[in-house]
Amino acid sequence: MNATAAIATNPGGCNSSQIADDVLWSEPRNGVDECVYVSVLARRSATRYCALLGHAAAFGARYTGWKFLSLSTPALKTAHLPSSPLALGVLLMFLAASVQPAPGAEATRLVPFDIEAHRGGRALRPENTLPAFANALSMGVDTLELDMGITKDGVVIVSHERALNPNLARAPDGRYIDTGIPYIQLTLSQIKAYDVGQIRPGSAYAAQFPEQLAVPGTRIPTLSEVFALVRRSGDKHVRLNIETKINPTHPQESLDAEHFVAVVLDLLRREHFSNRVMIESFDWHTLLLVQRLAPKIATVYLTQQTGPDATVYAAKASAWTAGYDPSNYGGSVARAVRAAGGKLWSPDYRDIDARAIAEAHELGVAVIAWTVNDARDMGRLIDMGVDGIISDQPDVLRTVAAAKGIQVPPGASESRGRRGLRSVPSN
Ligand code: G3P
Ligand code: CA
User: Fold this and answer.
1) Are 94 and 134 part of one and the same domain?
2) Residue 423, in any domain of the structure
3) Residues 161-182 as b or e (16 or more Cβ within 10 Å = b)
4) DSSP 193
5) Among the atoms of ligand 1, which is closest to the Cα of residue 116?
6) What residues make up the domain containing 361?
7) With contact defined as beta carbons under 8 Å apart, do 39 and 69 qualify?
8) How far lies 324's CA from each of 110, 169, 253, 295, 362, in Å?
9) Which of 9, 142, 193, 201 has a CA between 20 and 30 Å from the CA of residue 359?
10) Digit-coded pLDDT (tens) for 338-390
11) Predicted structure pTM score
12) pLDDT tens-digit map of 198-219
């Protein structure tokens, strides 16, 4: 389906499914630098989005599942623009209007600001569980961030580690496990026997999240169960940022990237969720596979530049970057991401500054920082122009973003009105 077809099937304007889709108005032969993206996140102004859709169709837009708006100056300069100055003027007027920042927001942001609940909002509910995702949906976030593993019987589950976590998993006898068994060695039914509804009391990990509400009896969810929760919630806008937990230095602890990606893409197609996800990974080989096999799915390049868990280095090669080492790009991580075909860079927030963000934006690469839990850090990063923040504290992030003039997504009770749900149940 292309945009022209979308308009043709509904010449009177947009319907909800069109608003849920995106348009790429572009010169495809020259790749992403030469594209203008119209974002589903512009849905916050549906009328304007309809107008954009119409103009894009009129100028021969190509339909895509891509999610974000890219209006960097280089993109506009090199795009295949309409030959008629009047037509071009009208299109640019609409495009410019669609990305006007809210008062106080950073003018150079590439995409509408993305509020992401890290692991569903780990500071508030048990991480990567249905209660956490339900809580995030209730308060209203743009994106649910989560981590994926694959079981011995080929099921995509949601968990940060590649194995059961002794700080989280309690066996049926009520005791926390001593050592983790990789999920790749366990079937889904074996994994479902463990309770992950409360961090091990007294542990250092528990001390990090003193306000997390325990939900005993909670099981590790499958990704399909998360999709079902999103459907039940009625939230038509929330996205999922789903991470492949593959460690190229410990390949035996998960499926290899080829099989991991194949299983995830197959599930997304069967569940019809391909247009609501971004696939993120520190393992860039994964992302290159996604870009080749499912080019409409957004990929997110995760990086960590410092400490023992670093995955990219300014001056040496890394097992994580599939050959796109910053050392080959003047030490610039953003340029390495761009060279790999990335349009979304997700760095450790402690690794970036205003200059790195500006450079990424010049390259047409949006920056979504992880994992930011302090309100002052959030405010500072928003002022520096990040395009989104991943936080264990989505409640705090909503407050800080709103104070900066950013429009925050409605929660379940706001979007459903008085007769609707006050909160999203997790089951
Ligand atoms: O998605 C960003 C962040 O989740 C990456 O770190 O270790 O929490 O998966 P981690
Ligand atoms: Ca993650």
Assistant:
1) no
2) no
3) bbbbbbebbbeeeeebbeebeb
4) T
5) 1
6) 114-416
7) yes
8) 23, 37, 24, 19, 19
9) 142
10) 999 999 999 999 999 999 999 999 999 999 999 999 999 999 999 999 999 99
11) 0.76
12) 999 999 999 999 999 999 999 9
